[in-house]
Design a protein that fits this description.
heterodimer, A: alpha/beta, Glutathione S-transferase Yfyf (Class Pi), Chain A, domain 2, Rossmann fold, 2 domains, 4-stranded parallel β-sheet, 13 helices, B: mainly alpha, Fumarate Reductase Iron-sulfur Protein, Chain B, domain 2, 11 helices, 58% helix
């Protein structure tokens, strides 16, 4: 990776439900010598709500942020999987539909250039070029820790938008976590939906979906789940009490021995501290 | 095969719903199918047949979580998630009572928060949702725990460009 400066879209959960994800991610990114510059005027991407009521509102909110990133001229790093999915879809729409692009260029007063990419945190940190640096930063290999990697929906589908390696069996978080020394176990629910969109409105259904995912994680012999999605993490953590679910950057920070991990563990419903 | 509804859905969602030949792969992998009154393959067929009223009154359109599993597996590359978006918007536009008003209460409270602050402020958004849905006691323990863990901030963080955000809402018809 030659360019070490990126634009950064924190997303609304960065100061609320995913606060430990952002703190861990920023610590890891700093350790890797990467600089993030927050988009000055970002707004909410519409999350799971805008598109449920109006596609044009959803596209408007996400495109506004893509336009802000285009003005800054750097690849945009988006840690929240949901935000990433929305912004990547808006970016994709502008790349592939000239009429949509022209309309949004005039609405947000910018000129779309296709050099700038929308990057999930997995895109940034699981890049092949960083593997050596990441391995060199591991101070305490996570020997003996059995992990299943849970990708969920938004960084995976639609594959044409996310550019994922394999929609049914993505492997980038697996490789990264294996580089930290943990034992990564193959399992069946990597890309299954946890029902996060209904997490607030239908607790019973989400508990059923989450229960099934954790059943499979247990059957695989895992000590914990690892994810990059803030909605998956919150949903899976809140709706069961059998095993912890960590953000992949929390696991990196643990292996690098950086950051205030003890404080992050307290933000979880199922304490990951007992694993280390 | 043609119906005014089919033409409208194809135009607005950009999805080739006319190509559906009922392989049912969508319904086989749908995590929410048990909650649907009509499984996704049937929704496709109903669009082809123009059964608009039944679809707009259905629970299926509000139970879809847009996980995109069906769209990823469809042999005809039909993404059903954007189709559901069009059906939901049409339900609201026609003033039809949504089959799941709780979901609409949440999404409405959420976008009102974006309109007000440019970003979501969970505390006021959740309060508004509780009043709209009248589900005052649901998940109070979870909410309290999240608050005590410092995950529901009291003060909102505002975007600096609120006038532009209000403009986006106006352009989308809100």
């Amino acid at each position: 990776m030659t360019a070490k400066i990126f634009s950064y879209y924190p997303g609304c959960t960065s100061h609320s439900t995913a606060i430990e994800y952002i703190e861990a991610s920023l610590a890891v990114i700093e350790a890797l010598g990467i600089e993030l510059r927050e988009l000055p005027d970002w707004c909410c991407c519409g999350a799971a709500s805008a598109h449920n009521l109006s596609s044009s509102l959803a596209l408007g909110l996400s495109s506004y942020n893509v336009a802000e990133a285009q003005k800054e001229g750097r690849d945009l790093v988006i840690p929240c999987a949901g935000c990433y999915g929305n912004l990547a879809q808006a970016d994709y729409a502008m790349r592939h539909d000239a009429e949509v692009r022209r309309r949004l260029e005039s609405e947000f007063e910018f000129s779309f250039k296709d050099e700038i990419r929308m990057l999930s945190l997995v895109d940034l940190l699981a890049a092949e070029e960083l593997r050596g640096e990441i391995k060199a930063l591991v101070k305490k290999p996570l020997d003996g820790l059995k992990v299943v990697c849970y990708y969920g929906c938004a960084i995976v589908r639609p594959g044409a938008v996310t550019g994922v390696d394999d929609c049914e069996n993505p492997r980038r978080i697996d490789s990264l976590v294996a580089d930290l020394g943990a034992e990564v176990i193959d399992w069946s629910c990597k890309v299954d939906c946890c029902g996060g969109d209904l997490g607030l409105t239908d607790a019973e259904k989400t508990a059923e979906l989450v229960g099934r995912i954790v059943d499979y994680a247990e059957a695989a012999g895992a000590d914990c789940l690892v994810t990059s999605c803030a909605l998956c993490q919150a949903n899976v953590d809140i709706r069961q009490s059998r095993m912890p679910i960590l953000y992949f950057t929390e696991l990196m920070a643990e292996a690098f021995e950086i950051g205030d991990r003890a404080r992050w563990w307290k933000k979880h419903f199922n304490d990951p501290g007992k694993l280390f | 095969m043609s119906s005014p509804l089919l033409e409208k859905i194809i135009t607005e969602s950009g999805q080739p719903v006319n190509l559906c030949y009922q392989c049912r792969k969508c319904s086989a992998g749908c995590p929410m199918v048990d909650e649907f009154d009509f499984p996704p393959n049937m929704v496709m067929r109903m669009i082809q047949l123009g059964l608009e009223g039944e679809l707009l009154r259905s629970r299926a359109i509000w139970m879809c979580v847009s996980c995109e599993t069906c769209g990823t597996r469809c042999p005809n590359q039909i993404r059903i998630a954007p189709v559901m978006d069009v059906l939901r918007a049409e339900c609201l536009k026609q003033g039809i009572e949504p089959a799941d008003p709780t979901t609409v209460a949440l999404h409405t409270s959420f976008i009102e928060s974006i309109r007000q602050f440019g970003r979501v402020h969970e505390a006021t958004m959740l309060l508004k949702y509780k009043f709209k849905s009248k589900k005052f006691t649901d998940d109070l323990d979870v909410g309290l725990k999240l608050f005590l863990k410092g995950k529901i901030p009291i003060m909102p963080k505002k975007s600096r460009n609120l006038s532009k955000i209000k403009e986006i809402f106006t352009k989308a018809g809100f």
